[in-house]
Write a structure and sequence with these properties.
heterodimer; A: alpha+beta; five-stranded antiparallel β-sheet; 11 strands; globular; B: about 240 residues; mainly beta; six-stranded antiparallel β-sheet
Chain lengths: ~280, ~240
């Protein structure tokens, strides 16, 4: 079992007139999300806000429909994939409702924790990093022309303008269906997960992020990272969530064990009752 | 001929000339024009091509990225005064005296999503393997091959493969001290990682007990309970 110390921060930056980023922290369900919206006339804000609102609502009242189940993923990862699909449908449908919403979309970077594992899902260019010891590694896959081409056809990159290179190849709400990249891993005490928008990752390199998040508690580190991105220009909105995995206290471990025992006992009792009506 | 001056913290670490028509490479490996011996720098990190119409910096899919004037770039046409950051080293691009400045090109503005069809057309119909929305890239398939304690091989197609004594695991292994779920193997963007989960004996990779997590390399030998498995990548 793990405990999570979480902090998040979003900042408009120093150039933009509105903040199209959104983030969401749900400590009960251990779900964390960063969304970076895009689209003119405030549509970007609508899109990222809708991603958050849709998922927030679903976490409160989980749907019991039979979504397409992917057997290569764990049950919790299937839940996460279903949340991403629901967010996509919500933004896609809204974008068709009104001319001013046409073409709006959002990125998504999310982490959902089970008792011992983390499940990471991403669409677009908002990264998720794992900092473990001195090391930092991406758990997300970047969906931009530059990143996708770089993996297969790097020689063609130089023919494309920077504008085209930075275009997203996947986003929430652009097409009727979206497939997130998902990864699942075992968590350990001391692990630090960082979710952010490209307003941070374009300005602060992974080793710098690792240095800052290991040196300060999550709340302080969020502020330091945002400040650094702003010092370097702050041309874009900046959003970051830092999640520090810690060991549960002795008391919490036992509360968890006892409540699990009760649940099991209640289940047995129920099963028994069903057998002997 | 333009020059690059290299700096680390307050120290000046020398000058490098960019030859006309040539290519200058930057990285940790000895074969580069500019060698930066630091773990934050990839073996082959970036290169600069001196082309007819300017100087093109390209990040070579480096682990920690290449930044110009504190902004991450994939490719960038260099302008005088540009500061390239690689790891914690900085390289400043200067023109030689009297040399004409290269043309200024368009800068990135707001994020946009590329139309899938537009993208396909741009990349060319000859490359259907390029990922479009939801498309799959060709990558090797990892398998575990039993050397002892079982037969055949198991493909690691799940994102998280569970190994242990319990029947609910993807790979069931016997052994007195083996945990219900002894270990997991996670497929991450940077590779496959084996983690210890529970049980009195820890899994071993190449004879060394794994306390938390270790990245698997091809032909690694994994020992869990009575089983010995080999990690293999198949094209």
């Amino acid at each position: 079992m793990i405990e999570i110390e979480a902090a998040g921060l979003t900042d408009i930056g120093r150039v933009r007139e509105n903040n199209e980023d959104a983030y969401f922290i749900d400590e009960v369900n251990r779900f964390y999300l960063v969304a970076d919206g895009m689209g003119g006339h405030q549509a970007g804000e609508i899109a990222s806000g809708l991603v958050v609102a849709t998922i927030q609502e679903l976490l409160r009242t989980p749907p019991d429909d039979s979504e397409p189940y992917d057997h290569l993923l764990s049950p919790a990862a299937n839940t996460l994939a279903a949340l991403v699909r629901a967010a996509n449908t919500a933004v896609y449908e809204k974008s068709r409702e009104h001319e001013k919403y046409r073409g709006m979309g959002s990125t998504l970077a999310a982490v959902l924790y089970t008792d011992t594992t983390a499940i990471v899902a991403n669409v677009g260019d908002s990264p998720v990093y794992l900092v473990r010891g001195q090391n930092i590694e991406p758990l997300s896959v970047t969906h931009t022309v530059a990143a996708e081409l770089g993996r297969t056809h790097s020689a063609q990159l130089k023919n494309l303008s920077e504008k085209v290179q930075h275009m997203l190849t996947r986003a929430i709400g652009i097409e009727p269906e979206v497939v997130p990249d998902i990864c699942e891993l075992q968590c350990f005490h001391g692990d630090i997960f960082v979710l952010c928008s490209d307003g941070l990752s374009n300005k602060v390199s992974p080793p710098e992020i690792a240095d800052i998040v290991t040196a300060a508690p999550p709340g302080v580190a969020c502020r330091e990272l945002v400040n650094l991105a702003n010092q370097r220009g702050g041309e874009d909105n900046i959003t970051v969530i830092i999640l520090k995995i810690t060991e549960p206290t002795f008391l919490r471990t036992w509360v968890h064990r006892v409540s699990a025992l009760f649940k099991k006992a209640a289940g047995l009792f129920q099963a028994n009752k069903n057998r002997n009506p | 001929m333009p020059i690059l001056t290299m700096h680390f913290k307050d120290m000046d670490l020398g000058e490098y000339r960019i030859e006309k028509g040539g290519t200058l490479t930057i990285g940790r490996r000895e074969t580069n024009t500019i060698v930066i011996d630091n773990l934050a720098v990839s073996g082959q990190h970036a290169k600069i091509d001196a082309l007819d119409d300017g100087y093109l910096l390209t990040d070579l899919q480096s682990k920690n990225g290449t930044f110009v004037n504190d902004r991450m770039v994939t490719t960038h046409w260099l302008q005088p005064g540009d500061v390239i950051t690689i790891g914690k080293h900085k390289l400043v691009f200067h023109l030689a005296e009297g040399e004409a400045a290269p043309p200024v090109r368009d800068q990135v503005e707001k994020t946009m999503v590329l139309d899938t069809n537009e993208y396909r057309a741009m990349v060319g119909k000859t490359s259907p393997t390029v990922a479009t929305s939801g498309g799959e890239k060709k990558e090797p398939v990892a398998v575990l091959s039993f050397l002892k304690g079982g037969d055949g091989e198991v493909a690691l197609s799940k994102k998280l493969v569970k190994i242990g004594k319990d029947d609910a695991n993807d790979i069931v292994i016997s052994g007195f001290l083996v945990g219900k779920t002894a270990a997991t193997i996670s497929k991450r963007p940077t590779g496959y990682f084996l983690s210890y989960v529970e049980g009195l004996t820890k899994p071993k990779v190449n004879g060394k007990p794994v306390k938390e997590t270790v990245q698997l390399k091809e032909f690694d030998k994994i020992e869990i309970g009575s089983a010995l498995l080999e990690f293999i990548l198949k094209d």
